[in-house]
Amino acid sequence: MQSTTQAAVETTHTLPLAEASQPGRLVSLDVFRGITVMAMILVNNPGDWGHIYAPLEHAEWHGCTPTDLIFPFFLFIVGVSCVYALDGVKRRAEPLGPVLWRVVRRGAVLIGLGLFMAYFLKWDLATLRLPGVLQRIGLVFIACGTVFLTTSWRTQLWLLASLLIGYNLLEQLVPAPGATEAVLLPGKDFGAWLDRTVLGENHLWASSRTWDPEGLLGTLPAIGTGLLGVLTGQWLRRPNIAPAEKVVWLMVDAVLLIVLGLIWNSWFPVNKSLWTSSYVLYTGGMAVAGLATLYWLCDVQGWRRWTKPFLVYGVNAITVFFLSGLLARGLNTWKVAGPNGTPVSVKTLLYQQFFVPYFSDPRDASLAGALACVLIWLVVLWGMYARRIIIKV
């Protein structure tokens, strides 16, 4: 990661902050990214994991809660960002070698940061979780950047359809070795078998060790989520089309994706852990609708006074996700003496002293703890934004 006084937005833009309103830069994309990562910080840092309001939890298996929208929104944004970062290179027909190398290098850095997060304070390679959120973001970035640079939008559309249909057929027709039939149960599907075989049980999600929500096979449809962003970004970049027309067709596309996702759900259920094809379409439709709405408000109408907190988060999205993860791990690992002398984590002690006594419902206390975390990071990021400190990957 490197610091810069130029406001390059993660891997997306290279224009100064003062030029946010100029053509070619999507303020709405920065805002959308900020809203998404802010929501990610909120759901990842409750005061008490045992007391959480249902919308702030993932669906137990099949189904989709508001929390289940966050990660696909981020991958969708990655796809849109690839277009805005690389479209000029593609139009100028620059040599692909150096550009592809930069794409791979940036993706590899994200993967490395994810592995470090998993290793931090555990310092145990024998049980290091290999899949993860940043790892999947890195792989999707590499795939989407490469596909965008080397193919047309029509080829990208066919690739998207092939990924989703092929993944559906594989998961529902191919049983895991040793099983008599293909099933979509935790740890029983073909993807879970592949993770255990290739990565080993000790390197999977610690809560199961039999499957991983960011596993290998599920990364293929996750690339499909990114490709939806790539296709959307190309539509937004098309010249000679009125902004209002772009928004209308994006909304039509959003409704179509949501409806198709719900139809597909009848035989291949919406499921974040498996990243099912129906989940890709359903959440992709939601993401298209969200970006279209923000595009109309921020970039077309120019209503931006309310956007500052989200911009502050959006321009340092990977930074805050990475650092907040390290901090949370540190506060949970650092033990101190509790009120009765029993060792407790610093995080637990702070929560019990500053939140629990002031709320009768433990879910409210837990939510207050999460909101406090969001606000603390907002103060930090606001200071960085004011000093034009943007950390790029």
Automatic annotation (TrEMBL):
Keyword Repeat tagged? no
Q: Name one Pfam family in it.
A: HGSNAT_cat
Keywords of this protein's UniProt record, alphabetized?
Answer: Membrane, Transmembrane, Transmembrane helix
Entries under InterPro entries matching the protein: HGSNAT_cat
- Annotated Heparan-alpha-glucosaminide N-acetyltransferase catalytic domain ranges read 25-169
Q: Which residues cross the membrane?
A: 69-87, 99-121, 133-150, 248-267, 279-298, 310-328, 365-385
Q: What name goes with this protein?
A: DUF5009 domain-containing protein
Q: Name the source organism.
A: Hymenobacter koreensis
